[in-house]
């Protein structure tokens, strides 16, 4: 971009600003900030994802796509079957890396509210009742089809509904982790008869819930 070009800015608190580039430096840009426009591009529902971190770059892809689908927060989890193990400074560096991916995804898709990327926690540290007015769902790999229901988006009359989606890593949650989630008020749900990759399952679930 060059001086005189128009640019759109957002600060993550809603809406966006018209601006004009005044100067392009090597490491900084000066702009003239103009009018604020109260534009929102958020999902009809408050979607939150808690996910057992998939390995390699798959978590990066998951954060990017979850942001595009309108998720409000992402909780990276370490579970019994997690391949990725993060703690301390390494975990914080990864969280900052995923936050940068979320910001870039917002720039690409036009969102002006950046989802919160929570610090890495174990499932045992994180698990608890979903909270008042929040629907908790856990992706289940149970063989007994009668024990789970297929995911459905909140009905048209439930705009603003809050949903927490818990999804496992490669191999899914263990049966004991799933039982623990159900005991805390999470309803077991399925994506159908096929077994999807960890990152695909989480994104498919969010796409269905976004309605």
Amino- and carboxy-terminal Cα gap: 37 Å
Reading the helices and strands in chain order gives EEEEHEHEEHEEEHEH
Whole-number tally of structural domains: 2
Report the CATH superfamily of the largest domain: SPOUT methyltransferase, trefoil knot domain
Features:
5 helices, Alpha/beta knot, 211 residues, 3-stranded antiparallel sheet, alpha/beta, 27% strand
Could you characterize the architecture of this molecule?
There is one protein chain. This protein has helices at 58-68, 88-109, 123-126, 175-183, 198-210; strands spanning 6-9, 16-24, 29-37, 46-52, 73-78, 116-117, 121-122, 134-139, 149-150, 162-167, 187-190. The chain is an alpha/beta fold and 211 residues long. The protein has 2 domains: 6-37, no CATH class; 46-210, 3-Layer(aba) Sandwich (Alpha/beta knot). Strands 4, 5, 6, 7, 8, 9, 10 and 11 form an 8-stranded parallel sheet that branches. Strands 1-2-3 form a 3-stranded antiparallel sheet, with no helix packed on it. The two termini are 37 Å apart.
